[in-house]
Amino acid sequence: MSEPTDNELMLCVKAGNLDKMSLLFSRHHRSLYNFLYHMTHDKQASEDMVQNVFYRMLKYRNTYTGKGQFATWMFHLGRNILKDEFKKQKRTGNYEGLEEVSEKISGGILADEQLGKKQAQHKLYRAMEKLNEEEREILVLNKFQELKYHEIAQILNTNEGAVKVRIHRAFNQLKSIYLKMESYEV
User: Fold this and answer.
1) pTM higher than 0.70 for the full model?
2) Cα–Cα dist 62/41, whole Å
3) Class of domain 131-185
4) Residue 77 confidence (pLDDT) above 50
5) Which of 25, 19, 18 is nearest to 62 (CA)?
6) What does the domain layout of the chain look like in residue ranges?
7) What DSSP designation does 90 have?
8) S-S: 158 plus which of 46, 81, 129, 162, CB 3.0-4.6 Å?
9) What is the pLDDT of residue 87?
10) What is the secondary structure of 100-127 as a DSSP string?
11) Within 13 Å of residue 154, how many CA atoms lie on the same side as its CB?
12) CATH code of the domain made up of 6-89
């Protein structure tokens, strides 16, 4: 017997079988946390926001239609909570100190190469800090969360073509910022 899909589980939650939410939480809390953490670089705030997303899922379970992918709906809720948090705190995401990402990318490389990679990663994250919130968000959804264009389009409530254009523009902006930073350091 195959495991129930996320949509099936959420429809069960909607019907009143609230214990199914724990399965959804165990399947998705890490990816949601990673998205929120990459946007805020605040572990505690990200953990709190994950809890708020799942709380809202329970609170608004009657609005769930089962159309599309569950993860798209979840990231949409996460995005709304993130916006609320940014408004409340009046802050932007911070990427300093993401050693675990650097280690994951540079795993198994010689020491000097690893140091060079870490420096390049740090520079990349500093460049990402200079992007506006929308540009940073779309790059995190696409590259860190590895969501497809159509999934991002659903989260952002736009079409796939607009997502492709926004990702392309955000990458160009990131590249421009990165190259400027590199030219200042030479």
Assistant:
1) no
2) 32
3) mainly alpha
4) yes
5) 18
6) 6-89, 131-185
7) T
8) 162
9) 77
10) HHHHHHHTT--HHHHHHHHHHHHHHHHH
11) 15
12) 1.10.1740.10
